[in-house]
Amino acid sequence: MSRGDRTLRGAAAIVGVADDVSPTGELDRSGRELEVAMILDALEDAGLTLADVDGVCHAESAVGLAEYLGIHPTFTESTMTGGSSYEVHLEHAAAAIAAGLCDVVVSVYASTPRGDRSRGRRAPRRMPPGPNPMAEWEMPYGLRMPMGPYALAAARHMHEFGTTSEQLAAIAVSTREWAARNPRARYRDPLTVADVLASPLQVGPLHLLDCCLVTDGAGAFVMTSAARARSLRQPPVYVLGAATCTDHMGIGQMPDLTTTPGVVSGANAFAMAGLNPADVNVLMGYDSFTITALLHLEDLGFVKKGEGGPFAAEGTLGPGGGPLAMNTNGGGLSFTHPGMYGMFLVTEAVRQLRGECGERQVDGAEVAVAHGSGMVLSVMSTAVLGTEATL
Amino acid sequence: MTTVRGEAAAAPARFEPPVGAESGPFWEATRAGRLLVQWCTACDRGVFYPRAFCPHCAAPGSALEWRTASGAATVYAAAVEHRPDAAGAAFSRGEPYCVALVDLVEGVRMLANVVGCPPGDVHSGMAVSVTWEPLSDGRQLPLFRPDPGAGP
Questions:
Q1: Which of B81, B98, B102, B140 to mutate to test the interface with A (most CBs of A within 10 A)?
Q2: Which of A253, A385, B46, B136 has the fewest CB atoms within 10 Å, counting from its CB?
Q3: pTM of this prediction?
Q4: A317-351 residue pLDDT tens
Q5: Which residue of chain B has the CA closest to A143?
Q6: What is the CATH number of domain B71-152?
């Protein structure tokens, strides 16, 4: 199957979603209890049950989750690419369904850093055993993770293209405008460029309000074949194109800090979908930091390389009715960010295409992109999703 | 628990790097203040971090040799940590510090601190050269400092 091949286009659809967040940033449930709740909610949304599930995706252990659920899937997927894991799961699930490996796939995520802290449980810092490039070549220099690498990317972008802190701040501002329309968002108060610039520098040039939240959150999606999707409860949201590209693991190995592997994943996903950026109504672009979202705008082809700053500063990414709505749930910057935020790109994209988003609904949304960014601009995964009308 | 005066000072100010499987010669040379880089004799390019394989041309480890780098470099990108406590970095004694990617004239890129000037003065394109900070076991950590005479 080549990238221009349309075999995968429209072969599978997301038929159920669920997520759980709290305006306080904290959830009572955690761990497997929360994961199971998300799976059952997403299955209920679809009109399916656990007995229908024969594919399981989990970024740590799909096998362990399947055991906990007491099911015996024919497809398991444990790819861990950081925040983009759930776009990778989406891509692989669609391919597996199209290839006949399974029929109903669930992917789930739950992370409760705030609740864990309140309960006195701190997750141990995960580090691969033994010497590894990060420990040997990065950690001695006090590069704070994860914002250090993003600060370097922002600094280089400023150097090459004259991008300003004000332009980056405009992304935080437009994203907050969307969050104001989302009753479940963590932060909904109005935000100005001046507020962002007045917030304390963390790793310069990034200010505190250029950085995503740390909140509890969980979510799940259910995917099945297009044929089966049409008999279910919700309007199917079809996978029109999906692609991933890996560039590096540590920031020191990234060839060009102003160009992410989204250039590849985006082009391939759009080619599979037979669509262009101009066809996109809603961009759910992973916003771990303002610079992350800016790089997506350029690398996915919404603007030319280097023009992301002026484009963001025009202020048309917010809810003012511009041609491209970005991060309509309020994003990782203002809605939620439990660590690997990619699941919420999918749940919001699906809800926009089902027309369920109330005050923040983008009128006539037919095509949405969920673009996940994993680790330190390392692994980009792009899913182009569409309604029945886009097939 | 009794707090022993000087206890904090005894803790290493830096996270001290482990020695990777391929990087023994690199760290040994730092004891004498020499900066080594791997060089692929098959494709004539520098390799960093050290490997048993050339990531440019897929040559085997036998094609790689160690060469002494000049220590001259250009800053590719520079960031300033304003919250050393949040970064868990004691080496700056609470002061903001610069973390930068520097391109050695030999064509490889390293992460390092740029010292010897206010951290906010470090910028892309700045010429720097290597300087050394002792580690607890006699190895030295390469850092960089402004050096208008360095660079390509």
A1: B81
A2: B136
A3: 0.95
A4: 999 888 999 999 999 999 999 999 999 999 999 99
A5: B99
A6: 2.40.50
